[in-house]
């Protein structure tokens, strides 16, 4: 296609948008609503994914060693732990270190524990990491059987519930997004159909004087693309702004270190690109759907 | 130039419009196609610019077989033929100049080329001084001349006219006929379906009469042969 034709197609496509006033408005609104929901779910899903994967890294078994165990006993225990299938890494945390981190985590109030330095009531701990987070369960039961193990701790139930919740959110989000995408697509297809009907005569003449189908299709392609892209602008702005507000307010709140949100900077950009892509796709798909039927004459 | 060999056309609803037509039209000929309404004249004309596809047989124009040509090649075949209609088929929101230029724009001709050729054909149809007018501002005869200009602007080898004078008064009809004759004199083959007895009987050309989907008569310098 030649450059001047592209300019012509773009101006024709733009003119169509204006000519169909209310239907254009309806289509863009549909895309806007769809992308607002899609975008919100995207932000949610990406954060949940991030959270889940950071949790997966954190899934570990804390093995509390008997206080009575001697140093050789501990060595035996370590080699036994190493022999268990599926164990990825083992870290030894002596009780002195455990006390340090306990005091540090309590801040000012931690000072009262300083008196415990001499007769440390804590256990030495082995922190065991599984190669595969889902196998943590099995490994923990194995370890419980070993000698000199006083107690084993790992957050099994909570994790299972969390994993179930994240996959549920993903599924719901996916269905909602697909449903809304189809709605928006059909509205766009209808808008374009109006354009085509209004320009029926023009298309007929174009065909008579030898315009190719590709040439006739272009303005409608542009119109669909514009509908989709224009529909993405408001959701991107609204979501990026709200997320950055939300993120900065969460950042200043205390005690949420446990849940790390994704920073606004790359996330908002990724979301914008995705929403623009989805908007453009839905717009073009909708317009091509109605043009195809029409050009088969 | 135009060869039809054993052409049949049956519409999906069962109407048998064309029932075995053989015809040869040479380059530079001027041919009237006459016949009663519903005799297949319209289908005959429509098959020539591949608006309708024959059910059986071959239609060869400029060495292209319209019965077998692929859908995507049709635009390129149409670029080598011009078509005009009873209702002109102009775009109301485009000026005379733009209506003619439109035919060149959609086949992606350059702007300078367009300007030169459009003014040229407007001169042939004697509308150069009305280039800026819109279709509703000019008479029916002038509108048909715009349509003719649009049909010939890409230098087609064939001009197909479907009742070009059907909506015009006798005087204006003659105006159109003189322009068509001029175009014919430049070497363009013209096939014209018509109901105009006076024109056919006065401006004597080859006459092909179609009745019940068959060729009933084919004479050089023939007459109209029907009461109206």
UniProtKB/TrEMBL annotation, chain A:
Domain ABC3 transporter permease C-terminal: 175-284
Chief localization: membrane
InterPro entries according to UniProt: ABC3_permease_C, FtsX, FtsX_ECD, FtsX_firmicutes-type
Keywords from the named record: Cell cycle, Cell division, Cell membrane, Membrane, Transmembrane, Transmembrane helix
Lineage of the organism: Bacteria, Bacillati, Bacillota, Bacilli, Bacillales
Transmembrane segments: 21-46, 172-197, 218-241, 267-286
Protein name: Cell division protein FtsX
Described function: Part of the ABC transporter FtsEX involved in asymmetric cellular division facilitating the initiation of sporulation.
Homology family: Belongs to the ABC-4 integral membrane protein family. FtsX subfamily.
Domain named FtsX extracellular: residues: 59-152
Subcellular location: Cell membrane
Gene name of the encoded protein: ftsX
Pfam families associated with the record: FtsX, FtsX_ECD
Membrane topology: Multi-pass membrane protein
UniProtKB/TrEMBL annotation, chain B:
Molecular-function GO terms, alphabetical: ATP binding
Alphabetic keyword roster: ATP-binding, Cell cycle, Cell division, Cell membrane, Membrane, Nucleotide-binding
Highest taxon above the source species: Bacteria
Family indicated by similarity: Belongs to the ABC transporter superfamily.
Subunit structure: Homodimer. Forms a membrane-associated complex with FtsX.
NCBIfam families: FtsE
Protein name from the UniProt record: Cell division ATP-binding protein FtsE
Native source species: Evansella alkalicola
Upper taxonomic lineage: Bacteria, Bacillati, Bacillota, Bacilli, Bacillales
């Amino acid at each position: 296609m030649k450059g001047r034709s592209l300019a012509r197609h773009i101006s024709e496509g733009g003119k169509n948008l204006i000519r169909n006033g209310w239907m254009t408005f309806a289509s863009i609104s549909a895309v806007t609503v769809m992308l607002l929901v899609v975008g919100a779910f995207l932000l949610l899903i990406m954060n949940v994914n991030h959270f889940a994967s950071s949790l997966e890294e954190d899934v570990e078994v804390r093995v509390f060693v008997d206080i009575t165990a001697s140093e050789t006993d501990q060595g035996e225990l370590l080699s036994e732990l190493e022999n268990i299938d599926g164990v990825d890494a083992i870290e030894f945390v002596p009780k002195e270190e455990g006390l340090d981190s306990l005091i540090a985590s309590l801040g000012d109030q931690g000072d009262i524990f300083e008196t415990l330095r001499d007769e440390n009531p804590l256990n030495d701990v082995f922190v065991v990491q599984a190669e595969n987070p889902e196998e943590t369960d099995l490994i923990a039961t194995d370890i419980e059987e070993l000698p000199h193990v006083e107690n084993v701790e790992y957050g099994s139930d909570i994790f299972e519930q969390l994993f179930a919740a994240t996959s549920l959110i993903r599924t719901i989000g996916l269905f909602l997004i697909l449903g809304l995408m189809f709605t928006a697509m059909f509205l766009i297809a209808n808008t374009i159909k109006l354009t085509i009907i209004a320009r029926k005569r023009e298309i007929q003449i174009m065909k008579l004087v030898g315009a190719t189908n590709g040439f006739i299709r272009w303005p409608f392609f542009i119109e669909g693309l514009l509908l989709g892209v224009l529909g993405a602008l408001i959701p991107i702005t609204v979501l990026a702004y709200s997320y950055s507000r939300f993120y900065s307010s969460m950042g200043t709140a205390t005690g949420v270190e446990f849940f790390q949100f994704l920073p606004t900077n790359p996330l908002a950009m990724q979301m914008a690109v995705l929403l623009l892509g989805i908007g453009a796709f839905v717009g073009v798909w909708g317009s091509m759907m109605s043009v195809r039927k029409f050009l088969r004459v | 130039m135009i060869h039809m060999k054993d052409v049949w056309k049956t519409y999906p609803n069962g109407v048998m419009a064309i029932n075995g037509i053989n015809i040869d039209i040479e380059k530079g000929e001027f041919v009237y196609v006459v016949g009663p309404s519903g005799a297949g004249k319209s289908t005959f004309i429509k098959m020539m610019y591949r608006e309708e596809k024959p059910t059986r047989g071959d239609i060869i124009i400029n060495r292209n077989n319209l019965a077998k040509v692929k859908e995507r090649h049709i635009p390129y075949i149409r670029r080598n033929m011009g078509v005009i209609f009873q209702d002109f088929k102009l775009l109301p929101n485009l000026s005379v100049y733009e209506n003619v230029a439109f035919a060149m724009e959609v086949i992606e001709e350059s702007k300078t080329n367009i300007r030169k050729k459009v003014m040229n054909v407007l001169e042939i149809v004697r509308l150069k001084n009305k280039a800026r007018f819109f279709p509703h501002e000019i008479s029916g005869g002038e509108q048909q001349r715009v349509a003719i200009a649009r049909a010939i602007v890409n230098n087609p080898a064939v001009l197909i006219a479907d009742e070009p004078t059907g909506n015009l008064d006798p005087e204006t009809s003659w105006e159109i006929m003189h322009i068509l004759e001029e175009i014919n004199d430049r070497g363009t083959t013209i096939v014209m379906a018509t109901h105009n007895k006076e024109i056919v009987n006065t401006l004597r050309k080859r006459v092909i009469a179609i009745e019940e989907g068959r060729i009933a008569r084919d004479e050089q310098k023939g007459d109209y042969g029907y009461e109206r």
